Amino acid sequence: MKVTYGKLPKEVLEKTVFRWLGARRKDVLLWPAYGEDAAVVNAPERCLVVTCDPITGSRKLIGWLAVHINANDVAVCGAKPAWFSSCILLPEDDEALFASIVKQIHKAASELHVSVITGHSEVALYVSEPIIIGTMIGVLEGNKYYRTGGAKPGDKILMTKTAAIEGTAILATDLSEVLSSKVDKPLLKRASAFYRKISVVDEALRIASTGLATAMHDPTEGGLLGGLYEMAEASGTGFVVYEDTIPIAKETRIICETLGCDPLKLISSGTLIASVRGDYKKLITALKRAGVKATIIGEVVPKKNGRKLIRSEGNVENIKSTITDELWRILSEYPPSSTSRLAV
């Protein structure tokens, strides 16, 4: 039987998770829904944004990613990350590996001015690779929070930076032995440093402060196309995006060509997508001044018009279901070596 890795599909979540959510407390403003990666809670004097996400597809960057991926989910709601906790599951009693993971968490949290406030760690039976489940809590910056499901037909679709940033960093780092004989070494070194681009906290808060966004989302599993599909499903809309307009770094393109994968379907933390209306050109200029590249790649359309990617050669690819991330296929083709779990 073929196993499909990654997020559970919408139908399963609606049939199970979304039906059983405990007490219906009135202080919960944003409840779980497909495509929504965080909750909003109305706490005394301020609103809190809470998210929880595991890191399972990286070996060497796991601690760093655990902080930033969870911080991103909080930031795209319009909140500033503040407190982090983690559950670290190890396959063996390896103190050096554990220390390296914790140091990564400390470094990433310190850069975001986030405190590590609690957590748990253990050597766990049936675990073959380190796993981290992280929880981030942030404070809403203004009076408005942003949802994945807020896009409206007519909105422009804006993306920041380039596609598949996280996937590029993971593949260049975890598959360095495989790629070193096929890819120029300086390029591989630059690609390994893409982990420095993973955070979208600054740009998310800048976009939120303008009030021009109707929805924000950070595309993770399923890559850019997966993120667009989630935003459309959550909003009840369609979209049209154009491959020729989507920025893809040279390092990403070469690594993906070498491994035979689609960069638009490769895990893409570090990219932010937003549906915007109004003076989006002014927003792009403001982001550019802050050192963040932003590009309009398409627009939101009514759901009946479909969800379409116009490929460079003119072919239309209809996005009809959840995207299975290319990372899972590639990692299954290249199992870890004896040294691949040593964190950097």
Reported by name, the CATH topology of the largest domain is Phosphoribosyl-aminoimidazole Synthetase, Chain A, domain 2
Q: What order do the SSEs take from the amino end to the carboxyl end, as H and E? A: HEEEHEHEEEHHHHEHEHEHEEEH
Give the amount of beta strand, in percent. 15-25%
Query: Uncertain segments of ≥5 residues (pLDDT<50)?
Result: 338-344
In helices, the fraction of residues equals 25-40%
**Strand order across the largest sheet:** 8-10-7-11-9-12-13
Find the count of extended strands (DSSP E, 2+ residues).
Answer: 13
Top-tier CATH class of the largest domain = Alpha Beta
Major β-sheet annotation:
7 strands, mixed
Total discrete domains: 2
User: Count the helices. How many?
Assistant: 11
Radius of gyration: 19 Å
Apparent shape = globular
Query: Which structural class do you get from the secondary structure elements?
Result: alpha+beta
* Average pLDDT: 93
Q: CATH homologous superfamily of the largest domain - what is it?
A: PurM-like C-terminal domain
Q: What gap, in angstroms, lies between the N and C termini?
A: 35 Å
Overall CATH architecture of the largest domain: Alpha-Beta Complex
Commentary on this structure:
It is built from eleven helices and 13 strands. The chain has a seven-stranded mixed beta sheet, sandwiched between helices. The protein has two domains: 10-140, PurM-like, N-terminal domain (60s Ribosomal Protein L30, Chain: A, 2-Layer Sandwich), CATH 3.30.1330.10; 148-333, Alpha-Beta Complex (Phosphoribosyl-aminoimidazole Synthetase, Chain A, domain 2), CATH 3.90.650. Residues 338-344 have low confidence and may be disordered. Helix 2 (62-75) runs parallel beside helix 7, helix 4 packs across helix 6 and helix 4 (165-174) crosses helix 9 (250-259). The longest helix is centred in the first third of the chain and has 17 residues, at 95-111. By secondary structure, it is of the alpha+beta class. It has helices at residues 10-15, 62-75, 95-111, 165-174, 176-179, 185-192, 201-210, 223-235, 250-259, 280-289, 326-333, and strands spanning 28-30, 39-43, 46-55, 79-90, 115-123, 131-140, 156-160, 213-217, 237-242, 273-276, 294-302, 307-310, 316-318. Helix content is 32%, strand content 25%. It is globular.
